[in-house]
Amino acid sequence: MDEEKEVQNIGNNQNEKNINIKDYEDPEGLTVQKMNIGLWFSKHRRHIKNVLIVLFAALGVISCIYSTYHFAYYISRGMDEDELLARELVKTSIVGHDYILAISAKDLIYTSPTLLKTGDNKYDIFSKISNPNPRYLCGFEYCFVLGGEGNEIECSENFIFPNETKYLLSLAQTFKQNPNNLQLVIKSMSWQRINLHKYPDWQDFYSEHLNIAIDNIKFQPSELSGLSEKIDLNILEFTVSNNTPYNYWDVSFNIFLYNGNRMAGINKYILQEFMSKETRDIQINWPGQLGRISSIEITPEVDIMNEDIYIKYEGGIGEEK
Hints:
single chain, alpha+beta, Immunoglobulin-like, 3 domains, four-stranded antiparallel sheet, three-stranded antiparallel sheet, 13 strands
């Protein structure tokens, strides 16, 4: 019995010797690999410390050399260059100011008002106005006034596009006598620079939105119209076509009659709800003795930058994008 126990103990000892230490697992998660890494750092700690000291010392020396070099360069040349740069900045600021003045909007150019007698104590007033700026449009408020008395005859608002020339009109004004001191006063102006990102080609935008054709202009003087024997009534007929892809609530037409180079008559006509691709025949009865008319000018007037003038509907060609 004792011999059997001794043999069993010898077998158990033999099995314990065959256990591989790599298979050891600590209950708290410590592995042999982690113990080897820790042992390596423990053995080489002094060497690692020395390497780090040398590395940081080298970085410090390089930084000192770099800073010393650039400080010496600034002392020798940089101060002079800074002084030169400061002088150039002063010069640049002056040039910049002149440049800003050069690209700023120039004042509107307009003529003194002209009176056109249409009947007893009745006059039409017109004045030519021009915008010399190729990249600025202007909205403005103006008044026709009697200069000596300062009385405002009529005030209104208008607009003018880049490089445009147009007329400001005031129709059927009554004066007891011909005023000699009539003036045009621009009371306020609001400039808007054309955004080249939104309107890369302003002229194309302008032409597309104002592609309104005027054809078949006919004028019958009062002596040939046959409308009335007691009142002189002339007849003006023309055809207008909206060749744009837009529908407009209102389109104004300024009408000028000429006898040679002399202005013989002025008028204004407003066409409402003018749809895209629509053509209309217009007839205007024009009172007064206008005399001989050699040429007629009719120009549409639409504030194409104002979104409110477009008739918009879902998916329609009249919708402004």
